[in-house]
Predict the structure.
Amino acid sequence: MSSAKRKSGRLIIVSNRLPVSISKKKGKLEIQPSPGGLATALRALHTEKKVVFFGWPGYIPENSNEHKFIESTLREEHKCFPVFLTRREIDKYYYGFANRTLWPLFHYFTSYCTFEQSEWEAYQHVNQKFFKKIIQDSAATDTFWVHDYHLMLLPHLLRSYFPQTDIGFFLHIPFPSSEIFRILPWRNEMLEGMLGADLVGFHTYEYARHFLSSVLRLLGHENEFGAISIEDRIVTVDNFPMGVDAQNIMALLREESVKNDIKKFQKTVGNKDRKVILSVDRLDYSKGIPHRLQAFESFLFRYPEWREKLVYIMLCVPSRTKVRDYALLKQEVESLVGRINGRFGNPGWMPVHYLYRSFPFERLLPLYAIADIALVTPVRDGMNLVAKEYVAARTDDSGVLVLSGTAGAEAELGEALVVNVYSKEDIVEALLQALEMSEEEQTRRMRTMRQRIIDYDIHHWTRCFISGIEKMRDLKAQREHQRLTDKWKRKLLSDYQAAKKRLLMFDYDGTLISFAKKPEDAKPDVELKRLLLLLAKKRKNQLAIVSGRDRLTMEQWLGDISCTLVAEHGAWIRVDTHSSWKAQKNISTEWKSQVMPILITYEARVPGSLVEDKEFGLAWHYRKANPELGEIRSCELFDNLNEFLANTDLQLTHGKKVIEVRPGGVNKGQAAQNLFMKDAYDFVLALGDDWTDEDLFKALPDSGYTIKIGYGPTKARFFLDSPQSCRRFLHDLTKK
Ligand code: ADQ
């Protein structure tokens, strides 16, 4: 059983708003479900045991009695721990930084962004406030799942208080490209905040990619298949497309009251002579409402034969009404609706039915059920649950979804009619296509989408994310097990002391010395030379430096130490100071003239990169290049060379910021084995950082001490976190 399954703490969900909200009507406090996509998701978790929620209840208590009453009612009846905010905090943090800075920026509306120092300070302060409230009522054994752009600093705050605790973060809105993100003056703080989590989730692969690219460019952290090593932790970044509660939607559709509403609507708005087009949104500029209305107007103008044969029901739920841009949007939408109805309507037909209010979900469903077309055309949307709810509600597989390509949902709903919301033409033609679509084609498209929505529903989403956190927990436990703790270090040193003959094999770059921008700058310093000389001098020790470097450099830098030098990953060996270099086998170098021009092309294309010409190998280094360009080009070069070298016995490796080509059969493992066979060693130690050192670790017996410097998957028995820790460890060895 994984450690995850054994864990006994609670799951703590933290979001700006609780799944329920408080309001006061006629002097009486009322509790209602909160609006919006995130609240919908949280409600699905509500029934889970051992889940509790922290968030703002949407209300400012008028006195301490109300405060106490709300606190105890929410806690006891709804598993909710309210974080109360003041009017000023709501203005500056919620309406300010969250909704005038982050929301527009992350949705690519840069011209709507404000960058106010006081709002940023309020954002930091409220994240702190959440943190302080949470730690009062939680423990290190709990698992934390923090949601959305309001609380991006919280994972880091929790991490500094609970270093080992499991923390997940999910962003419900898009993560923009790094070109956009880096406009934010406090960009590094935001990234560091998110990276406090073990698992960072997004709706789509694209958002995850954008995030990884910002982390690389701004903080310099590389990733390997979405795993970022930060000091002694690993943060995994992945995509978890959120679903809807499809089973619940289908069950509600079977309820009498919903069926009655469907019948009623069929008689009034949608009958067989009149098609229904539906849209459901929060009134937000990211939802593309004016674009859609303008396209609808063009449609009525261009295709007069459709007038009176359709009706557009446009539901808008009020949102962020205190933000100026939202108030302006409301005016714009209302004036467009008025214009269309005035221009095309008549006493018996109103083209647009505009409803500006929130509906209980049971009242929304009949509309999904009767709508022939759902027109979901956000300009930019993290996911868009409305599109998925519509599909889930089409239990007879009829209906057409028109969906913009800039909604996250598009990645999963390719059978929809996908439009570019900025092209009026596109929407007009998609509307026509939808209205004229045959029943067979509707069924074909809808059935596929519906099955997907059923399979990948909201429960699947929560399960996947939580099991992602559990995997991280297991990984942490495994890494903890591999840490070279003081206890293990004592055991190693005592075995070292007791041994009669010891073989010590050390990689050079990234192990004995930190990486330098240029390979020639990583010369051994005085301290390193002293440590190596001391270790080599001990009678019982056989010291070997096993490197990918060329033999000339090794000779110049380390030639005076009485040890074995292995160069070019094992192609060359110099047994001791009195011997000369020997090639391990008869190696041809004819291939180099063919590979070199390819590497030179990349050297020219990637400023800062350079080609190293070794005797038996060639390497292209890109440590000094722009990290992102280097990563992209290195993958491209690797693919090119892979094909080019397919039928040769050359081997291609992608190490740390380097791509190398060298003859087959030459590797550090082979070299280690040759050394190991030479004598009867009763203590073997290997230190390395790169994956070329994995060959070395694999070649050694299980009783050997193998230590990886840095983190990441490894065959080594232990970890040390950096070349600096490695130095300290060498000091300890010299003292024995
Ligand atoms: P939202 O921007 O709120 O969510 P969306 O995903 O479409 O957008 O969710 C809206 C939810 O509100 C739906 O469940 C819908 O049924 C409900 N709703 C909309 N209009 C309503 C009305 N008039 N009355 C009642 N209910 C209404 C944010 C992100 C999205 C992301 C979600 C979830 O902006 O991109 O999909 O979070 O991660």
